[in-house]
Amino acid sequence: MWADFAVFAFLVRRYAIVWGMGRIVRGKLLRSDFTLSYCCAVTLIKGWRIMRKRVMIAIFLCAALLAGCQAAPEASKDGEIFRAKGESEDRVEEILREDEGGSAGENAEDSGNVALVLGQGENCMRLEAEIPRVPETLGALVMGPDGSLDGEALKRFLEPEGETEDIAQRLLEEQEEEEQRQRERDQRLGEGDSMLEMADIGDGSYLALTDQNRRAILKGRTGVFYEDAALKEKCRQAAKKNEQELDVDAPGTGFSSFSLQDAEGLLKEKLSLLGIEDIYLYEADAHEGGGYYFYEVRFVPSVEGIPVAYSFGQMVVTEVYPDGNAWICPEGVADLSLENFCMEKTSEGEKSPVLGWNKLKKLLETYLEDGSLVCREDVSFSTVELVYYPRKRGEGLELTPMWNLHVDMGEYVDYAGEHGMDTAWNIYLNAVTGELEEVQ
């Protein structure tokens, strides 16, 4: 029960506006933290349309946890390559062997906007998306903690406006005291241990600095947390007013005097102090109130131009999901959270051909035909992306290239509320082997 609750709370926290920096010292999460984050989120999210959407998403995700995912087909092994097992296995292998033309750059030509329906009868998938250009070959990557991040790097990132103070020990002691209070409450209530150890990556190190206004924390050389208290308070006031969800791909979106692209530039400038060169912005909200405004953005690392996967409906507490969240105002970054985000490449697997759109389309039709995929034409898959799917490996992550297709969450929540959860909305398919890895 509590494992399911932890995953649900993790998702709620993803949508929450308030980040409790004092509660992320060791990756341990308390039930009270979830309650606080959720209440703060609901309090701050104004406007019935936005609040209804986010509450419905949270409820839907919780229900999805209880219902579970569509099961991906059982895998069969051919040498060292795993492929979908079932009546269509021969067809999958046939597709993988097909020659898509044999010319260099075939995947680059295999891109552009598509609007089509795959499948037959009731089990159909509607696609209305842009197909990206992808590399000809890719291999799995193994990423580890960023060894360049140390005390000096953290101080540069803090950009102190006065004397700095090392507060790592104090925060660790405060965390231990809080954990002890929680253990005592659990003992009184007789509910057992309510603290859950959330999976993360890193080398176990912990550094924290402050100049009495700004605070920066480096956790395990993979997680970084920052706040400018003065700017954050201004943003809190604006967050209580108007909020608007933005199209992150639309040029010049946001406030006329300070666009979302301007905010992204400030964010990248701040992240460059950590050696982070590129990110993938996937969601943004504009907040305005009391004559002040800011953006709340969510993003993931981008490795050699390919984003780490970010679309998840069901998460596993033993796995790790790199993610970033920031508040950005015209004066700079007010709040920043990078969870399992800062990494460097430690090794790379042998590169293999990446499945182009033509083969991907045929594989999807095959999985629809044999029932491995259950879809409905009433909802549209509006995003098709090549991503790196993360899996925890010791102190680091293994990133596997995969195709991700997903429906807009708001659209799917509306559909599920009316028709039930009878269709897939989020699909991960191995971009090299063609295996259907995950269906939600």
Please tag this protein with its features.
single chain; 440 residues; alpha+beta; ten-stranded antiparallel sheet; 31% helix; globular
Q: Would you kindly provide a written description of the structure presented here, covering whatever features stand out?
A:
The protein has 440 residues and is of the alpha+beta class. The protein is 31% helix and 33% strand. It contains 11 helices and 26 strands. Strands 8, 10, 11, 12, 13, 16, 17, 18, 19 and 20 form a 10-stranded antiparallel beta sheet that branches. Strand 14 (254-255) and strand 15 (258-259) form a beta hairpin. The longest helix is centred in the middle third of the chain and has 22 residues, at 168-189. The model is unreliable at 1-60, 64-69 and 71-85 (pLDDT under 50).
What's the topology here?
Blueprint: H1 2-15, E1 28-29, H2 31-44, H3 48-67, E2 75-78, E3 81-84, H4 89-97, H5 106-109, E4 112-120, E5 123-131, E6 137-138, E7 141-145, H6 151-158, E8 165-166, H7 168-189, E9 196-197, E10 206-210, E11 214-219, E12 223-228, H8 229-239, E13 242-245, E14 254-255, E15 258-259, H9 260-271, E16 279-289, E17 292-303, E18 306-307, E19 323-329, E20 332-339, E21 343-348, E22 352-353, H10 357-369, E23 380-393, E24 396-407, H11 409-419, E25 426-430, E26 436-439
